[in-house]
Automatic annotation (TrEMBL), chain A:
Transmembrane segments: none annotated. GO terms for molecular function: 4 iron, 4 sulfur cluster binding; metal ion binding. Pfam families: Fer4_7 (PF12838), NIL (PF09383). PROSITE patterns: 4FE4S_FER_1, 4FE4S_FER_2. It comes from Desulfofundulus australicus DSM 11792. This is 4Fe-4S dicluster domain-containing protein.
From TrEMBL, chain B:
Pfam families: HcyBio. This is Uncharacterized conserved protein, DUF39 family. InterPro entries: HcyBio. Residues 18-377 form the Homocysteine biosynthesis enzyme sulfur-incorporation domain.
Length: 133, 398
């Protein structure tokens, strides 16, 4: 089976548990961590390439632990015409992909840091952030 | 102290000799040359703000069909407009929603389309579906009409916003333990973020705290075109904030403007339909006000920088919705713009809802208009109430 890209979201209550360790050890899965932003007592996000015979069991384990699992098949893009650079997305974006360049106060969108959580899509007041399949 | 008049400044604009700078530039000029020289050399300081302003809307006159109709109910792209005025007049308000909108029934609602979006569609020249019903009279017999209009097809489209350009605004935080969805955006629990919504040192009314120059008839940049200050805005309660402990002045707050202008000469870049998750639809409005530097006192106010202008920090989790007075302290716009502030000992990331780059662009456009002699200053017929008038808000009993 070829590796699949998935997004994992951890609530603050489980972000300090050794979940990934158990995923490797107990389910013998091969993983490549593409992005990770996990801090104690905070919401965590991880993007993984994952493969192995126990793939589905591994995902079930993650879900049992309270991790939200989502396939990474989408991409978030910014409609440059529509974005007013207000900044309303910047404290909402969990990875800093959307951030302000200072002192200009211009909103920068760094697609490489985006984990497609899509919070900005709903937070953007002028609907400038769009999901592309 | 040397004084200038509106007439003198306009004469210099006419001869192409007026010195016009943006509020950002003026701050640097004052730092460099001192207040006295700066106030003598500079004629006009331009300001700007671009942010959601809910108390906005447009009066429309559709013209009469044949046979005539006295419109009793009107919908524009399915959004109701108020038509309790003459036969084919209506007012489309920025926060009006379609009657079949799910609102917050599946919280937080998306509010993807509302009156503000209708106004954006109109100003962009896009076709808008008009539906109206009448009850039939001898002079206005028609009972219904469904047609498509554009802004070019109708008699008048007049933007009239009863409350815009708030002088200052709360820095919103959330002390509760759940995410809340407000007109100040999404506020994460336990002081997860802090949102603010003015352009600080570029913001029009922060630069004229005592309303020495802004009044009825002041010509302004409105929605990409030319507009006018019509009156003071609703809830216009201007005051100078002070530190409760030291009594130090923390800049103004509370003033608002009612503005008016011909929607037909405005632009969708500066009037944008806007949606706040879980809150509603509204309109983002671009406004720029020119401040004539008539004397040194006006110059001093216009030179106030982000470090001298403050916003009160307010809890939207509990205090604000329940109308509890007080705040969690004051924070300067310089601190807000740095990206983090400290509230109750905790470092909190900040984000603006008001576009600073667009505010700067407006101040730049207005500067260019004046430099090119396309825009003259209008001396107000009457100045707006100032902090000295002591206006304060009332609480609705019930």
């Amino acid at each position: 089976m070829s590796p699949r890209k998935i997004v994992l979201r951890f609530g603050p209550e489980i972000s300090d548990k050794p979940i990934i360790y158990r995923l490797v050890k107990d389910y013998d899965l091969v993983m490549n961590i593409l992005k990770a932003n996990v801090n104690p007592q905070k919401e965590g996000i991880m993007v993984l390439e994952l493969s192995g015979d126990n793939y589905e069991q591994g995902l079930n384990y993650l879900r049992e632990q309270g991790v939200t699992v989502q396939a990474l098949t989408h991409e978030v893009v910014r409609n440059e015409q529509r974005c007013t650079m207000c900044g309303a997305c910047t404290a909402i974006c969990p990875t800093g992909a959307l951030h302000l360049r200072r002192p200009e106060m211009e909103v920068v969108f760094d697609g490489d840091s985006c984990v497609v959580c899509q919070l900005c899509v709903k937070a953007c007041p002028v609907r400038a952030m769009e999901v592309k399949l | 102290m040397s004084e200038k008049t509106y007439q003198e400044i306009n004469a210099r604009i006419k001869s192409g000799k007026a010195v016009v700078v943006t509020a950002e530039e003026f701050i640097d000029i004052v730092r460099e040359k001192g207040l006295t020289r700066a106030s003598q050399e500079v004629d006009v300081v331009t300001t700007g703000t671009f942010a959601p302003m809910c108390s906005s809307g447009a009066f429309l006159n559709f013209g009469h069909p044949a046979p005539r109709i006295k419109m009793y109910r009107v919908w524009l792209n399915n959004v109701p407009a108020y038509t309790g005025i003459a036969a084919v007049d209506a007012y489309i308000g920025a926060t009006e929603l379609p009657e079949d909108d799910p609102l917050n029934s599946n919280h937080p609602g998306e509010f993807r389309y509302g009156g503000g979006h209708v106004i954006e569609d109109l100003v962009a020249g896009r076709p808008v579906r008009l539906k109206a019903i009448g009850y039939g009279t001898d002079c206005y017999p028609r009972r219904e009409i469904e047609t498509t209009i554009t802004i070019h097809d109708i008699n008048e489209a007049i933007l009239f916003n009863p409350r815009n350009a708030y002088q200052n605004y709360n820095c919103a935080v959330n002390l509760s333990n759940r995410t809340i969805y407000t007109y100040m955006g999404i506020l994460k629990p336990n002081l997860g973020n802090a949102h603010y919504s003015t352009s600080g040192q570029l913001s029009p009314l922060l630069k004229d705290p005592h309303f020495k120059t802004i009044g009825i008839g002041t010509r302004i940049f409105l929605g990409g075109g030319i507009g006018y200050v019509a009156w003071h805005g609703t809830q216009h309660f201007p005051a100078i904030q002070t530190d409760p402990d030291s009594g130090r002045e923390l800049g103004p707050a509370g003033g608002t403007l009612a503005v008016i202008g011909d929607l037909k000469q405005m632009s969708p870049r500066w009037l944008m339909g806007t949606s706040y998750l879980g809150y509603g639809a509204t309109l983002s409005v671009g406004i720029g006000v020119p401040i004539p530097i008539l004397n040194e006192e006006i110059a001093r106010y216009a030179a106030a920088s982000d470090a001298e202008l403050y916003a009160p920090i307010v809890d939207y989790g509990e205090a604000y919705p329940n109308q509890k007075p007080g705040n969690l302290g004051y924070v300067s716009y310089a601190q807000l713009k740095s990206g983090k502030i400290v509230v109750q000992g905790k470092e909190v990331p900040t984000a603006p809802l008001s576009s600073y780059p667009r505010a700067r662009e407006i101040a730049g456009i207005l500067k260019k208009w004046i430099q090119n002699g396309e825009f003259y200053l209008a001396e107000p017929v009457q100045l707006l109430p100032s902090p000295a008038d002591g206006l304060t808000g009332k609480v609705l009993k019930g």
